[in-house]
Amino acid sequence: MLWPDIATSRRIRELWAALEAEGVPSMATHTHRLHRPHVSFIVAEDLPVNASLEAVMSVPQEPIRLLVEAVGVFPGGFLYLACVANHALLDEQRRVCEAVRLLAVDPWPHFEPGEWTPHITLGWELTNRQLAQALPIVLGNLPIEGWLDHGGVEDGTTGENWTFPHRASDCN
Fold first, then answer.
1. pLDDT tens across 37-70, in order?
2. Which is it for strands 78-83 and 161-163: parallel, antiparallel or unpaired?
3. The model's pTM
4. How far apart are CA 150 and CA 134, in angstroms?
5. Which residues is 66 bridged to in the sheet?
6. Cβ-contact 16, 26 below 8 angstroms
7. Structural domains in the chain, sorted by start
8. How far is residue 161's CA from residue 76's CA, in Å, rounded to a whole number?
9. At what angle do helices 128-139 and 6-21 cross, to 10 degrees?
10. SS3 call for 104
11. Are 93 and 29 in contact (CB under 8 A)?
12. What residues contact 48, with CB distance under 8 A and at least 6 apart?
């Protein structure tokens, strides 16, 4: 997964808080309450952390421009920010999926390259009423621009996460 830069992450967290203030549950209060704004490249029932970090080496290889100009809803009331699918983002997702393909146990098919919708989740299992409340709030906060500049592996059940080591060029 990729995490946005500090300023962009703050904007998304403020959006989560605005949704919560209007009674719409967001990722801020979902499950373990440790969620961070992110773009998932692959989701699987099991993905061994150390082997995955070793296989991928670094995510992203270079910071990737993030532009969000739209909001969407997946079936089941999953509200998300729709990330513009630029070439760098699509290429990095394909690279990561190929690197961990043999490690992933029961990967989710809609995260396969060519099937994937790049997104940042805002809320889960929202009712139609909650979605109607949320849309004007989200649309009033668009566009969102920034960078996806660091990544890692996260256990969605516990919120524990492991970051990829910084590239040598980042340490100078």
1. 999 888 888 777 778 778 788 778 789 999 999 9
2. unpaired
3. 0.85
4. 28
5. 146
6. yes
7. 2-154 (3.90.1140.10)
8. 26
9. 140
10. coil
11. no
12. 103
Residue 162: which of 13, 74, 11, 56 has the closest Cα? 56
CA pair distance 158, 34, nearest whole angstrom: 8
| 3-state DSSP assignment of residue 158 | coil
- Peptide linkage before 143 cis (omega within 30 of 0): yes
Q: Where are the alpha helices (DSSP H) in the chain?
A: 6-21, 49-56, 87-100, 128-139
| Calpha distance 124→172 (Å, rounded) | 40
DSSP calls for 26-69: -TTSSTTS-----B-S--EEE--HHHHHHHH--S-SS-EEEEEE
Residue 13 identity: R
Task: Give the residue from 80, 61, 85 showing the smallest Cα distance to 121.
Answer: 80
Are 27 and 121 contacting, i.e. CB atoms less than 8 angstroms apart? yes
Q: Residues 110-169: pLDDT tens digits? A: 888 899 999 999 999 999 999 999 999 999 999 999 999 988 777 766 767 767 664 433
* Residue 157, amino acid: T
